[in-house]
Amino acid sequence: MGQSEFAAMSVVRDLIIQADDQLRYPTGGELRSIVEFLSGGNARLSVVRVLTDNEKKIVDEAARQLFSRKPEYVAPGGNAFGQKQRAQCLRDFSWYLRLVTYGVLAGSTERIQEIGLIGAREMYNSLGVPMPGMVEAIRCLKEASVALVNGEQAALVNPYFDFLIQGMQTST
Question: What is the pTM (predicted TM-score) of this model?
């Protein structure tokens, strides 16, 4: 099953589960929302392709932006000082970029919430990583990503970065 088929299946599945839980047929509005979701599939896939094909470029640019804004992160004693810590930061950047692509593909923030935000505060706090730094990192990731897409594509991807940023801000 392809990625677009999976996303469509989850939207249809969720609608069916909701209607069944309420012992009713899907409403006309729900059916229209499926049609709208399916008609935007090519646009979502296009955004996902750009982000996926340019992952290294996006991550490198986001890191460059973050560390130029916050040089203390790569200075001795900083959270990204040294090869190992910097590599871990870049790994997290890639992970969050991947989560955003899941959101765009599915047209939902559910996976971002489940995978990317629940427990983020505890994990980063236990590692001594300040959440404001992660918020700034996601902002840089967003800027580097949006620089590679057109305006219509940016409108598709921005809400998922904004959801991450907002969720991390409330975690501080």
Answer: 0.81
Q: What is the domain-level CATH number for residue 156?
A: 1.10.490.20
Cβ neighbors of 144 (< 8 A, separation 6 or more) are 57, 58, 59, 61, 62, 65
Q: What is the pLDDT of residues 43-67, one digit of tens each?
A: 999 999 999 999 999 999 999 999 9
Cα–Cα dist 41/48, whole Å: 11
| Domain shared by 35 and 61, yes or no | no
Q: Tokens standing for 164?
A: 């991450």
pLDDT at site 172: 52
Number of domain units in the chain: 2
130 contact partners, CB below 8 Å, separation of at least 6: 79, 124
